[in-house]
From TrEMBL:
This is NOL1/NOP2/sun family protein, putative. PANTHER family: 28S RRNA (CYTOSINE(4447)-C(5))-METHYLTRANSFERASE-RELATED, NOP2 YEAST -RELATED NOL1/NOP2/FMU SUN DOMAIN-CONTAINING. Residues 202-214 have a biased composition (Low complexity). Residues 188-251 are annotated as: Disordered. One of its GO terms (biological process) is rRNA base methylation. GO terms for cellular component: nucleolus. Residues 218-235 have a biased composition (Basic and acidic residues). Residues 1-178 form the SAM-dependent MTase RsmB/NOP-type domain. S-adenosyl-L-methionine binds at residues 11, 38, 55. It comes from the Eukaryota. GO terms for molecular function: RNA binding; rRNA (cytosine-C5-)-methyltransferase activity. It holds the Pfam family Methyltr_RsmB-F. The keyword Glycoprotein does not apply.
Length: 251
């Protein structure tokens, strides 16, 4: 990007964010804001991104050639936990994306439970579609595996195998967001619920969001190559009042 635009680099691990900051300074990167949040629920902090790259935590089954301990240290429970976390992260990543934006989901694993099964789950719960990655190498994703049947478009994904491509096992899939239909339904549900959110957590999130937006503004002003633009302001969805009905009269 040559220091144009604004990049948000998020990691749930604080020590890794410190290392990331050091690398950014060493490389002369000035258009990146490092954040330390849980990726699940990141859309409540910042959203409407043009592109999102989700390098999801996984079992690391694709790097067994470099770490033999994975063969004995990972169990079925680890795969299930990783799969559930990956689903939650990908759902949040989609919710943080603007309509028409693209998201790339990747893992260093070749397990179906962490790859095609995760993407297929999100396809059934969000208005997104799988698009071609544009990669000239790798094998197509799986539309069926044993008794599992996944979305036909998952063949656009790419799988890399150590014994075939002479590199770590890897999975990558590219998706495009079609609409905010699911988010609108959630907004309606929250508007009619009687449960009130905690004031403390709301205030904390609002303060953090304000600080991030302020930092984003400074980054855009300091970058001479960034084109000035204003974000698309969308009005919040409000629930229309219920239609009035005339009382029934007995004859």
């Amino acid at each position: 990007m040559k220091n144009t635009g604004v990049i948000f680099a998020n990691d749930v691990s604080e020590p890794r964010t410190k290392s990331l900051n050091a690398n950014l300074q060493r490389l002369g990167v000035t258009n990146t804001i490092v954040t330390n949040y849980d990726g699940v629920g990141y859309e409540r902090v910042m959203k409407n991104f043009d592109r999102v790259l989700l390098d999801a935590p996984c079992t690391g089954s694709g790097i067994i050639s470099r770490d033999k301990s994975i063969k004995t240290s990972k169990h079925t429970e680890d795969v299930q936990r990783a799969s559930q976390l990956q689903r939650d992260l990908l759902l949040s990543a989609v919710d943080a994306l603007r309509v028409g934006g693209h998201i790339v989901y990747s893992t260093c694993s070749f397990l179906v439970e962490e790859n095609e099964a995760v993407v297929d789950f999100v396809l059934r719960h969000r208005a997104v579609t799988v698009v071609d990655t544009g990669l000239p190498f790798g094998r197509p994703g799986l539309a069926k595996y044993r008794h599992h049947r996944f979305h036909d478009k998952l063949h656009y994904a790419r799988r890399l195998f150590p014994h075939v491509h002479n590199m770590d096992g890897f999975f990558v899939c590219k998706l495009r967001k079609l609409s905010n239909e699911h988010e609108q339904c959630e907004t309606e549900a929250q508007a009619v619920t009687t449960k009130k959110p905690e004031k403390k957590s709301t205030a904390t999130t609002a303060t953090r969001t304000k600080a991030i937006k302020s930092t984003t503004k400074r980054v855009r002003e300091n970058s001479s190559k960034v084109e000035a633009h204003s974000p698309d302001k969308r009005s919040r969805l409000s629930i229309p009042p219920a239609p009035r009905t005339r009382p029934k009269t007995r004859r």
